[in-house]
Structures are given as structure tokens and as C-alpha cells.
Amino acid sequence: MSLPSGVFQQSYAQDMAIFRTRTHWLLLLVFLVLLFTMPIFSSNRMLTVATIMGISVISVLGLQILTGYCGQISIGHAGFMAVGGYVSAILTAKLGWSFWAALPCAGLSAGVVGIIFGLPSLKIKGFYLIMATVAAHFIIIWVVLQFYDVTGGADGLAVPRPELGGLVLKSKASYFYLVMIIACISVYLAKNIVRTRAGRAFVAIRDNDLAAEVMGVNLWIYKLTAFFIGCVFAGVAGALLVHYFAFISTDNFPFMNSVWYLGMLIVGGMGSIAGAILGTVSLKLLDELVTVFGPTLAAVFPAIAAQAAASLGLIMRGMVIIIFLIFEPRGLVHRWEIIKSYYRRWPFSY
Amino acid sequence: MVTGFGLGMVYALIAIGFVIILKSSKAFNIAQGHFVMIGGYLGFTFLVTFHLPVWASLIAAIAVAAIMGLLIERLTLRPLVGQSVLAIIMMTIALGTVLDGIATLVWGGEYKAYHGVLPTLNLKVGELSVPPETLIGIIVSIIVVLILMIIFRYTKMGLAMRATAEDEQVVQSVGIKVTTIYAISWVIACVVGVISGILLGGVSGVSTALAGAGMRAFAVVLLGGIDSIGGAIIAGIILGILENIAAGYLDPLLPSGGGLANVFPFIVIIIVLIFRPHGLFGLTRIERI
Known about the structure:
The complex is a heterodimer of chains A (350) and B (289).
Chain A (H helix, E strand, L loop, with lengths): L11 H5 L5 H15 L1 H4 L2 H26 L7 H17 L5 H20 L8 H20 L1 H4 L5 E2 L4 E2 L2 E2 L3 H22 L3 H11 L1 H6 L4 H27 L1 E2 L6 H14 L4 H28 L4 H23 L3 H14 L6
Helix pairs in contact in A: 4-9, 4-10, 4-12, 4-13, 4-14, 5-6, 5-7, 5-12, 6-12, 10-12, 13-14, 13-15, 14-15
Chain B lengths: L1 H24 L6 H18 L4 H24 L7 H23 L15 E3 L2 E3 L1 H23 L1 H11 L1 H6 L4 H26 L6 H15 L4 H22 L9 H16 L14
Antiparallel strand pairs in B: 1-2
């Protein structure tokens, strides 16, 4: 951990703190103020984008813990989000529970499903595990489609918006606050989870699981814990997504989303909480760019107008991931560290 | 049953392309289904749009495939040699997405089929009549597979490829050019993909949904054993037939009436991974720290 020169730690508590200098606190404060005043100065469209971004951040944080820290690659994250989403939707819409009771249930149930599909991870890894999680996604979606009476199958299900003390969170701004508060709590939790004993065990498993086992890390417990934690985040994110759209169907959780979540990790940087946030925000912004400039491009090249919008997003996202894998495999966070150490040492860099 | 057989051959062809790359460079190529899709569209362009004869369009398509394979290997996979499994898999997924985007851009991503353009054969086994185009598909794929097996088993190139998969540093130290081996294996995989794409276009048509078939073909790869070409074929046929039977007999029993065919390969994946991770014919790997 590099710190600006002249900062000395004099106690263990200071050494372990996440925010270590006054500038850190100031930056955090400015960021939070900007974040929570956003509804005042931004348009409806921006709010929507930011809300979806917040939900994705929660989900990607889970994936970061599971894949970035514990090394258990999962391309089934959208499936686990679907579990959370459906549990929350059924509890609120069919059984009349309040959103606040349904949200933890959504997280927990997604976690349990995650453990079930994490079981093969005890025997297999790498490509095999990826295929197991891909299978998990498709099986979950298929099971959802089977129970038409409960889930609404392919037709979907209308879901009520959450209420808070008689106030229905109906406006975009109110839901934005809800998502951002939960996202901030998740970031805080995730940042601390990876610093605990379990978090260090995850990193040991990622670097070499056999060596970790020899050192006394219980693979059976910690791999499943990683799946549980990762999928709890996914479940919460899924529930938030469903209540935001006030509607749920399996189309909300396409397979490619699972892939893009991994892409966000790669763009942001594996094994870093900040990386999860950076990656999500930058890929979502890229999507926005495509949506905004797609029509312009179609106007310039009328021959490909019909397909341009659909194909441009695919090509752009694919190219971004390819470029990052080749030129910056450690992600934006690594680039940011380089910049930071540069300006901290500034006139006296090596 | 026969439909299942044809489907199984499609799976097997995708799986073979996958196994070739895996055998020579230990890279997991998720984009193999997209190669097949591109092949189908290329076939459409050459056969229908340009009205070329079958042999000419086959040669043209194979040439394009070879160039595509070389470019992909040199530009995207070469920089990743020695990187983690995740990096390579994400690279091939991203590659697949780009190919998907290109297909949408160039061919509109629509369903294209060219029945009756490819030569046909008729065969009757007792009561059972095999659809002619399925038969052609089966014959061509058997020929392709035989050629590949011979290459892998009896030529120096095949030996070098298998050795490269085992340990690229040792191979380099005995004077084999690893980069050439990688390039050749990608070219072969692309060509196999394109040939099967053309066959498929003639039999049942191609669309961007074929990439999904690519995903399902991994059930075949896993069932057959991840490094076995013969296993890929047998598993492909088994899975194709099983999928059809499952859809035929079990779908009516399910509450919402079906869709089992789409998810069946994934159930197979989970079962195989839990009980026999190295598949039917694969080698068990022992890991050292």
C-alpha cells in the first residue's frame, strides 16, 4: 500500500484503516455528496443509467469476490441474479411480503442455490468449472420457465415497487437513493470481507488451491463460502433489478449478461473492489455511448443502418475486452495505481 | 432418431474444432460455434449470392477461413500465451461476440438456408429413409474426422501439436516452432468450423442462434473427454439422439410442456462434471504443485 510521503502510522488501527489520510476522507465525502445530490442536477435518463449501474456494481462485487478473489470462475452470475429476483418477486407479489423482508430472503436463497452449483467446484476447476456455471445459468432459467403457475413463465410477473413507511418508492430519484445506499453498503461489506480471514483464504485458494489446502485452508468450506457470498450479492442485485422494472421475466437475465459481468471484472481489474466498480461504470458508459451514437452512425452509413445498432454494441464490447486482455490484463485499477504513484512522487520520481 | 443423429453430427463437428485447438495449444475456444456460423454465412455468400459452383465456393470459403484463423491467432491469441485460463476464455468469448456482431452487420443476422444447392444422395435402410442432406453431412464429417485423426496420429505435424499441448517450453527447446503450431491449429479449427457451417447451411440453415448450439456442443466435449477426437464424435451422436428422445418422451410430462431439448445438454454437463470430470474417453490429469 503506497501512501504519500510524510504519513506515518502509529497504531494498528491506523494501519488497518481503509481511509488513511485526510485527503481520502475529503474525496470520499465529495464523492458521496455528488452521488446523493445527483437526482437534483441530472436528467431522468441519467438517473436510470446510474440506477442500473448501481445494481450492476452490487452484482459485479459478488462476482469479484467469487472470481477475482477466490478464483472460482463463474459465467452463471445472471442466473443467480434471476434466483434472487424471482424469490423476491414471488414473495412480494404472490405472498404479499414487504420488500424489506423479501430482499434478505432473495439474497440468501440465491446464496443457497450458489452453494448447490458450487459443489462441482470441489472436484473441478478452470474450464470445467466455467462449463458447470454456464450449465447452472441455463438450468436455472429452464426451471423458472417450468413453474408457470408460480413464476409466470415466459409471460413474466408484475412486481410491486418497495414501500418505506407508507411511502411508495415510485419516482426514479427515490429508487436511485435506495439502490445507491445498498450499493454503498455492499462496497463497504465487500471491502471488509476480503480483508478477513476468509478473504485471505480466498486469495490463497485462487493462487494455488492445493498449496492452500496443504497450508490448512479448508477448501470445502471456503470455496462454498465464496460461492455463497458471491451469489448473495447477485441475489440482492437481482431483487433490486426486478423491483426497479416492476416486472420480472427470464428476459431480464440473459446469458450474455453473465459474460459481460466477467468482462467488467477484466476491464476494471481482477482482485480489487475498486476494479469492480471502475469496470462496471466504464462498460456501462460504453453501452450508453453506443446507444447515443448508434443512430448517428446509422445516418452516416445508411446501407447498414438496420443492423448497425444491434451489431455495433456487440463489436464494441468484444473489442474493448480484447484490447484490455492484450494491453492491460490487470485492468483500469492497475493503470490508476501507476498514475497515482506517479503524481505522489512527482517531481522526484525514479 | 435420424434427426438426432444429424444433430449429433453438428455437435460433433463443433466439438472437433474445439478439441483440435485444445489438443495443440491448451486454449479453450468458446468461439467455435461462431466459426461454424460464419462458415454457414460464407457458404450462403458464395453459393447463393455469387452463384459459384460447389467446389469453387468450398475452396473460397476454406481460403477465407484459413486467413481468418491466421489473423485471429496472430492478433488476439498470440499475446495471451502463458496467461490464465480465464484470460483465454474471455478472449475467445469476446472474439465470438465480435464475430456475432460482424455477422449481424454483414448478413443481417437473419436465418439463411440453401437447400438443394449441395449435391444429394439417397439411402434407404429398410423402412428408414435417411434425408439426403443429412447423409452428405454425415459422410463429409466422417471424412474430415478421419483425415484429422490420421494427421494427429501419423504425421510429424500432429505429433508436434500433441507435444505442444503437453509442454510448450520443452517443445520449443527441441526445435519445434510453437507459434507455427498454434497458427496451424487455429487454421484447422477455422476450416473445420467453416466446412461444418456450409454443411449445416445446406441441411437446416444458419442463423446467429448457432452460437448457442456452440455452447451446447461443450456438453459433447465434456462427455467425450476433453482431449479425444473419437470421443467427441461418439459423444456427439449419443447426445444428439438422447436430446431428441428426451424432448420426445419427457416434454409432454412437464408442466409447461417442454423446452427440455435446449437444457438437456447442460444437465448432461453437470452430471458428467460431478461423476466423471474427464469424460468417457479423456485422460485423467494428475496435478502437481
